[in-house]
Write a structure and sequence with these properties.
138 residues; mainly alpha; Cytochrome Bc1 Complex, Chain D, domain 2; 2 strands; 55% helix; binds heme C
Length: 138
């Protein structure tokens, strides 16, 4: 009898453990996923510092009057297909370490590295930085 009781106790304990574990497994936060993917952009972009390309905050500031929906499309296209010429003047005036002539600086298309879904996650994360409280979390 005693061993059955012990066994039941162990079974109960194990079930409890498993259910606690299941509760802790929350779905992956899409913004976190976007942020993780955007680490690949760090060769050229930082959130706040201007490396060889404008920081994400500088980019968001330029488009601050553009509504979310429209800006998502602009960023999606720039990231997927690359961007050239839009920032030449800004690069000329603001970037100290120039890798080449400002007029030759461009952003290579990112489509070999990310699929559309991943680019959307990156764009959503980028737009989340429009809210100041999200920037401090980065
Ligand atoms: C090799 C360097 C490089 C990499 C890697 C890179 N970028 Fe860029 N990015 C640039 C440069 C340079 C510009 C300015 C392009 C221009 O003048 O049009 C730019 C511009 C942008 C813009 C503004 C586009 C616009 O329409 O005004 C966004 C948004 C952006 N990058 C996001 C990203 C994201 C997100 C990634 C990673 C998935 C990334 N970039 C990777 C160099 C890079």
């Amino acid at each position: 009898m005693k061993s059955i009781k012990t066994l039941m106790f162990i079974m109960f304990f194990l079930t409890a453990l498993v259910s606690v574990k299941a509760e802790n497994q929350q779905p992956v936060n899409p913004l976190k996923k976007g942020k993780e993917l955007a680490k690949h952009c760090a060769w050229c972009h930082d959130v706040k510092r201007n490396l060889i390309a404008p920081s994400f905050m500088v980019i968001l500031d330029k488009y601050k009057n553009v509504p979310d929906k429209e800006l998502k499309e602009i960023f999606f296209n720039s990231i997927k297909n690359g961007s050239k010429g839009k920032w030449n003047k800004w690069i000329e005036e603001n970037i100290q370490t120039k890798l080449g002539k400002p007029e030759n600086m461009y952003m290579p298309a990112q489509k070999p590295y990310f699929n559309d879904e991943e680019i959307k996650l990156i764009v959503d994360w980028l737009l989340s930085l429009r809210k100041k409280e999200n920037v401090s979390k980065n």
